[in-house]
Known about the structure:
Blueprint: H1 9-25, H2 29-35, E1 40-49, E2 55-64, E3 72-78, H3 84-100, E4 106-112, H4 121-134, E5 144-148, H5 154-168, H6 189-207, E6 216-220, H7 224-235, E7 239-245, E8 248-251, H8 258-268, E9 278-280, H9 282-286, E10 292-295, E11 314-317, H10 325-333, E12 338-339, H11 341-344, H12 347-361, H13 367-392, H14 396-415
Helix pairs in contact: 1-3, 1-14, 3-14, 4-5, 6-7, 6-12, 6-13, 12-13, 13-14
Bound molecules: nicotinamide-adenine-dinucleotide.
Amino acid sequence: MQPLEWDTPLFLMARAQFDQALPHADVSQMVxxxxxxxxxxxxxxxxxxxxxxxxxxFPGYRVQHSTVLGPTKGGIRYDPEVSLGECAAxxxxxxxxxxxxxxxYGGAKGGIRCDIRALSPRELERLTRRFTSELVREIGPQTDxxxxxxxxxxxxxxxxxxxxxxxxxxxxxxxxxxxxxxVGGSIFRREATGAGVVMTAERACHRLGLELSAxxxxxxxxxxxxGVAATELHDKGALVxxxxxxxxxxxxxxxxxxxxxxxxxxxHGSLDGYEAGRRVTNEELLELPCDVLIxxxxxxxxxxxxxxxxxxxLIVEGANGPTTLEADAILAERGIPVVPDILANAGGVTVSxxxxxQDLGRLFWDRxxxxxxxxxxxxxAFDRVWSVSDEKKIxxxxxxxxxxxxxxxxxxxxxxxxx
Length: 419
Ligand code: NAD
């Protein structure tokens, strides 16, 4: 058979993780066959009149992997690499993440193939609004709910919400999440992913017989996820001995002053030039002796090349896909547990779900309520993954996949979605 349009390396990796978990998941062939393919994929041509008067068309995508548990949910990214295959892989991972957290959603992902550095703010607004109109039959509060992803943000979501609302004739804040609070966004959404990462790290420490507050931690990535995770660790009394961003890292055996680092980054744009502590490269940072290593920058960081030199008792994946399949096997062999991305960084989509629920109910919760509900969801998911791992003697990643697949499988079997 000819390869299908989404049979790209990233989608094949998502499929390989699915295949690796299946022998432990005990689900029917009907379920396997159905979940191997995204349900729907659309490609749109998004026309834009550039500021200089010339015309250009950008390819746009939206892939919906599974509608078994409810509407689909997933980010919109603006990036030169966006493709049908990339969206299909990311949509598939979103299905597992939502199912694992018991959110009533399936996975989706979409985006526009473009380089935002080449577009003015006015062009970005027009592009976003036109993309939203092209997707008006696909998205909706009961069908598919976008959120920000690479190079999109609260403003992008506000434009999408406004365009959709104009098309249907009334305000529909619940059509997107990750919006500004003034148009129905949720308190604590910005901090949710980093806070969730630390909630799972703390639970994992507890299961390993360790106190998080007594651990030496290293955090790669100092953005939305890593920066918040470093603050949460610091606030809980853990010693953060190293952090990094794209400019490199800083290391201090006696612990870094995280509030001061945030102030430095706010003023200078990055960690570059920060004097207190020893400068290290990102490669060195991953190999520093520590107890907890949080990888919160980007994919492909722990590979077959460096996995043998990681000196941590525990790895927690804040980023999506930071550990390759080969590195996973090496870490398992070395007995270093990895809290996988679909569990560790699920705090963001969980508070997105809270945002949608609040918008639908037109009733808004306070920070403590949201934080408490997030902690309940993260810990419940962590404990389910841990017990599958205990029972089957498989890695936390395989266990998370097994737990997620079973959630979708249960609904699929009950609904019997086959003609
Ligand atoms: P961000 O852009 O806010 O921050 C990324 C950080 O990583 C920055 O400090 C950047 O300088 C650094 N970085 C980039 N390339 C690096 C490299 N090669 N080495 C070291 N540092 C590098 O992004 P974010 O929102 O924090 O996302 C980080 C990761 O978490 C991504 O994989 C993203 O998909 C994932 N994620 C984010 C969310 C969320 O809610 N923001 C949710 C789930 C998953």
